[in-house]
Write a structure and sequence with these properties.
By secondary structure, the chain is an alpha/beta fold. It is built from three helices and seven strands; from the N terminus they run βαβαββββαβ. It has one domain: Barwin-like endoglucanases, CATH 2.40.40.20.
């Protein structure tokens, strides 16, 4: 089941252009809400209301479908400030100009479905990780 949710981005407080005015010290240390590591271009945050609408749990993978073959895969690893049901995509340093503050169809996906695809072939059709997932220290997202 997918839910249409508002999509925004967040990043580090020292990022280019000052496009995220709500950065915090935990984000600047690449820490999520549970002292976990968040990864550039692979982590995301949900407001509590968006989490409840999706039935998501921390660590779940989310498919974010803007339509027109623009599909992102992000892992729910942080909490966004509550203003409305929203998913914030973590892009540490530079705003992704292809992602507009818009709405997308979001659903929880099983990692096995992503790896194997719905037809049992390797790789889910239309779903690709959304860029480099490197964090400080050279750690890579799984």
């Amino acid at each position: 089941m997918s839910v249409r949710i508002k999509i925004t981005q967040y990043g580090l407080s020292l990022k280019e252009g000052g496009w995220d005015t709500y950065g915090d010290s935990s984000t600047d240390r690449f820490e999520g809400n549970a002292n976990n590591v968040i990864y550039n271009s692979s982590s995301c945050a949900l407001t509590a209301s968006a989490r409840d609408l999706l039935g998501a749990k921390e660590g779940d993978w989310l498919e974010i479908d803007f339509g027109h073959d623009q599909v992102y895969l992000r892992r729910y690893e942080d909490t966004a400030p509550e203003t409305d049901p929203r998913l914030d995509m973590f892009n540490a340093w530079v705003e992704d100009k292809q992602i507009h503050q818009d709405f997308a169809d979001v659903r929880v996906v099983l990692l096995m479905d992503v790896l194997l695809g719905s037809n049992g072939e390797q790789g889910a059709p239309g779903v690709q990780p959304s860029g480099s997932a490197a964090a400080p220290g050279g750690k890579e997202a799984v």
